[in-house]
């Protein structure tokens, strides 16, 4: 692996780790565009660029989610009953998502990701809590919700927070408990989605060296290690700054990244 590629990946991890710690978000929506750019520069196979970016981004959550869950659990912010009701559907959906992605042209997948990130940025920018629709549904309803959340998360390579938190708050869960419960979803989404991405990319002859299915292992480990260095710094910085204003800035950054992915989808 070239030194240039290592430096690009490490810098990506440093930035996304800091942003995740600062704003309390997962790095998936940042990582996918950055991975797409880096893999393009390195001339990875065009047909698999976005698939690899999404798969590698999703796999990072396996390593970064546990500390977040523990922190939320210590604060009493996790509704474990709700989490366990969502997880079966999450596991199924997170397998389905990458399977659907594997059937999609890489440009279509890039466009879908761009639209999703645009919607997420609008949600962050407006910061309007959804109107509540009563209590949490029963087991069938939670299973269906988990399947939908897992499928979408597996498609875009994210931990599901931008879908899970609005769903839980819509069903009457206080926001801090919705965030804590949503954090629990990261690991099962990443586990099932990673296995699906390995399976769906297994044996493809033109993937670069170091790939495990669609997961690019050098990118995975470079980003995980470097992001762990800066995430605590981001969390400490959050207590000193106006995070509401930072989230607005971050929303505009997401718009730019979404624009890049949409441009990737439209270019010939």
Task: Write structural notes for this entry.
With 268 residues, the chain is an all-alpha fold. It has one domain (3-266). Helix content is 77%, strand content 1%. It contains ten helices and two strands. The chain has a two-stranded antiparallel ribbon. Helix 2 (28-41) runs antiparallel to helix 3 (49-74), helix 2 packs across helix 10 and helix 4 runs parallel beside helix 8 (175-201). The model has no long low-confidence stretch (mean pLDDT 84).
Strand order of the largest sheet: 1-2
Q: How would you characterize the largest beta sheet?
A: 2 strands, antiparallel
Mean pLDDT across all residues, rounded?
84
Number of strands: 2
* Global structural class: mainly alpha
Spatial shape: globular
Radius of gyration: 17 Å
Topology summary:
Blueprint: H1 3-23, H2 28-41, H3 49-74, H4 80-103, H5 106-126, H6 139-156, H7 161-170, H8 175-201, E1 211-212, E2 215-216, H9 217-238, H10 243-266
Helix pairs in contact: 1-2, 1-9, 2-3, 2-10, 3-8, 3-9, 4-6, 4-8, 5-10, 7-8
Name the features.
2 strands; globular; mainly alpha; 77% helix; 268 residues; 10 helices; Probable membrane transporter protein
In short:
77% of the residues lie in helices and 1% in strands. It is mostly helical and 268 residues long.
């Amino acid at each position: 692996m070239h030194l240039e590629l290592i430096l690009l990946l490490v810098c990506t991890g440093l930035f996304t780790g800091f942003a995740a710690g600062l704003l309390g978000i997962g790095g998936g929506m940042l990582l996918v565009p950055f991975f797409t750019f880096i893999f393009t520069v390195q001339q990875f196979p065009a047909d698999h660029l976005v698939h690899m970016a999404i798969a590698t981004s999703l796999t990072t959550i396996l390593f970064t989610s546990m500390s977040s869950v523990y922190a939320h659990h210590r604060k009493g912010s996790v509704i474990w009953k709700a989490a366990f009701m969502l997880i079966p559907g999450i596991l199924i959906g997170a397998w389905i998502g990458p399977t659907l992605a594997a059937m999609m042209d890489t440009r279509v997948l890039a466009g879908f990701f761009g639209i999703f990130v645009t919607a997420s940025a609008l949600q962050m920018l407006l910061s309007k809590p959804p109107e509540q629709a009563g209590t949490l549904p029963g087991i069938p309803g939670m299973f269906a919700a988990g399947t939908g959340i897992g499928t979408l998360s597996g498609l875009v390579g994210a931990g599901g927070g931008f879908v899970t938190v609005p769903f839980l708050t819509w069903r009457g869960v206080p926001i801090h408990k919705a965030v804590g419960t949503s954090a629990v979803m990261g690991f099962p989404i990443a586990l099932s989605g990673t296995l699906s991405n390995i399976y769906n990319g297994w044996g493809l002859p033109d993937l670069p060296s170091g790939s495990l299915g669609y997961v690019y292992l050098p990118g995975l480990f470079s980003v995980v290690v470097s992001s762990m260095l800066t995430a605590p710094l981001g969390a400490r910085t959050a207590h000193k700054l106006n995070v509401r204003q930072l989230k607005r800035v971050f929303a505009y950054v997401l718009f730019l990244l979404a624009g890049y992915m949409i441009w990737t989808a439209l270019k010939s």
